[in-house]
Amino acid sequence: MNERWRTVGALAGTLFAVNVVARLVIEFGVDGDQSAAADRVSLGMFLVIGVILAGLAFHWGRDRPVARWGADLAAAVLVALLLTVLVGPLLVGNNPFANGAGTFFAQIWLYLAASGAGTLVGYLVLTALGRDHRSQQLKRYAERGNAKPRRVVRR
Prior knowledge:
Number of strands: 0
Strand content: under 5%
Structural class: mainly alpha
Oligomer: single chain
Number of helices: 5
Helix content: over 70%
Largest sheet: none
């Protein structure tokens, strides 16, 4: 159980680190019009988050049931979301609510949409290939059912 929470924490930390890098690029790497650059960097950040979660859904979905890895991903995304929305702006000297409630909640919805889309794409590709945990269980069951029955020896 301890290993499971360590994995969730590492994933949440990775997702938060992606956000911190994006914020630092916007703050220190952009000269001039920061709003246009912020939109592009934010889009890139959401794409990276989606790709990370798609890869993890693909990897974890092969050998774990959906309920287990789905709960782990949901917990990590929730922790990373809270860190991103509440702590991330403080790292670059902004207030989380500086741009108003609309921007605050838009960031939450965009983060949830990107993480949900990435997870869904990874799992759908895995399922389409027939490599998910459930498909492998059904394949083993069918192979076991088609095996030659044991020959009864009479004495």
